[in-house]
Amino acid sequence: MILQARGYGWAVCAGLAGAGLLLLITRGLIGHAPHYDELLHVLAARGLLESGQPVIDQGIYPLAELYSRSVAWSYRLFGDNLVAARAPALAAGVALVFVMGAWVTRRAGLLGGLATAVLLCVVPTTVDVAVFARMYTFHALIMVLMFIGLFEACEPGRSWAARLAMVAFSIALLPLGWHLQPTTIIAAGAGIAGVLALQLLDHWPRIQPIIRGRPVSTIGAVGLAGAVILVILWLSGLLDRLNEVPLWAAGNADRPHFYLVALGRDLPLLWPLLPLAATMAVASPAQRRLALYCVVVVASALVVHSIAAQKALRYIYYFLPLVCVLWACALAAVTALDGRPAQGMKGDGGARLAPFVVMALLAVGFAFSQEGVRILNLAAGRLAAIDGLPFADEPDWTQIVPDLEPAVRVADRVVASNSMKALYYLGRYDFELNATIVPETVTGLEFGTDWRTGRQVIGRAESIARVLEQPGDSLVVIETKKIGRFSGVTDEAFAVIESRCREMSLSAEVGVRAWTCAVAH
User: Fold this and answer.
1) How far apart are the first and last CA of the chain?
2) Can you give the pLDDT at residue 17?
């Protein structure tokens, strides 16, 4: 049957189908208003083109420099614009979907490969990071290649030379992943756990008598190994890293259920079904190894990320492709395409028809789900019908730039709640009023220097009062969504601005407010 095909040609077709779908659903989203994090790379890329260094204003931004350099390269090809800045992220996302579709086809058949590629496009985070000028799709692609290398190294029947080559390939990816994201250490640990699970599965007939004969020793050895790992993590400082959290993310620090809730919100049909899908996939003899590996990797990584203080869906995106593999393997099992005869259908004709009947029923059910409606609307370009579009609430300063430019030219200082947007839209700022950035400065204190831009950062009411008391004119530009937030512009700081400055008339639709503040020279 074609849907069971595992040839290279079919693998390429599955990968291309998924890649094409991702390009289709992102075409209307890639031009959204810029986000603070994106502009770090946008401005660093300009610095690379001008000076060869990722310079931003009077600072430098070396983090994830590979992505900044890819943006600079994209600028050379397509010009300095936001779509060009996001093109590398989209390209890596397309490559990720292609790799997953092709690899799973080789391992689980054409239906599994197609399902994996399509489901990966269905995951909202895939669309979010694919149109986001940041390193998350790069990191996910590298981590997936590492996971694939480790799995293939454990495949029965391979020569030792092939196994060593695949392990070496996976290890070689670690420095590149670490350059992009410190979470690579969690991914590496999850990959090792997956390998151990495969070894346990393959050698269970020999291991089982040992465990039964020496249960206390076995438990003690496992406990000792866990203790050694914890000590190593503690001595290396990695445990402290898990507890670090910026102010903007502090609200989720003590919510170990954060990812369960967030994924349930994004995937209300598929996420609750994951335990059932994983069980069915592991129970299927044809896909047991692949499913077990994915279950262990996903569970290991999810537990650690849930314990970590800083949480956001983009941080766990690198293992979501393996979640899609579990759904795909379950689909292959439920449609009896893993080599077992269909149940409940008499005769060869009925047995051949059963998988297609099941797939048709599942497809209809999915089409009426929230996930299905969303992906269909995206593919059709009906963006107005979709709630929660990526970065839809991000203020776009373009409309108010003509109103602000005269004030920027005459101001002795510019105070902005978003330093990256001030540089991108206005070309300057002198102080950033943003409480969440203060701890990230060189000193971690008020009026500390932001190493990214070389400018000072403030957050308290007394600090903004001190700035506004300086001789000359001040221009204050604040995004509305940051007003009244302890991690943005506090109520006390905002009260100082309103009491000492005169608000400019700007369009309320933009979500940005500005004030001019004059002090006698």
Assistant:
1) 84
2) 96
